[in-house]
Amino acid sequence: MADEALFLLLHGEMVAGMYRAAEQGEGENGRCTTKLESMGFRVGQGLIERFTKDTARFKDELDIMKFICKDFWTTVFKKQIDNLRTNHQGIYVLQDNKFRLLTQMSAGKQYLEHAPKYLAFTCGLIRGGLSNLGIKSIVTAEVSSMPACKFQVMIQKM
What we know:
Number of helices: 4
Structural class: alpha+beta
CATH superfamily: Trafficking protein particle complex subunit 3
C-alpha cells in the first residue's frame, strides 16, 4: 500500500516538475511529454525484464498483449486492464475505466486538457515493455471522460 502511494506521488511530482521547468523557460511542453515517455520506456524495459525472467516464451503477439493487460498491469497498477480489443491487424486498444494515475484528478471536464501529460509515462511504460519482448510499437493515449482512458498500441512490423 505504501509503495503504491509513493509511486503515485513520484509520478505526480515528475509530471509537475517537468512542466514547471518548461514554464520557466527551460524547455517546451512537447519536450516534456517526450521526456516523460522516454522515462517510461526505460522503466518498462526494466520491469518486463524482471517480470518475465521465469515465464515461458510467449506464443504470439496476442499472448504478449494479454500478459501486458493482466500480469504487467496488475503488478504496476494493482488491477487488470478492463478491456482489450484488437482488429487482428496489429492494432490493440487497452481500456482502463479507472486509471490509477488519473483518479487523483477531479472528474470534471475542465481537467480533461491536463490528462494527456499524466499518460505520457504510461505510454512509454507499455512501449518499453513491448520493446523488450521483441515488439516495436507506437503507443498513444486518449481520455474522453475521467478517470477512464484508452491506450492504442500500433504494432510496427519489422
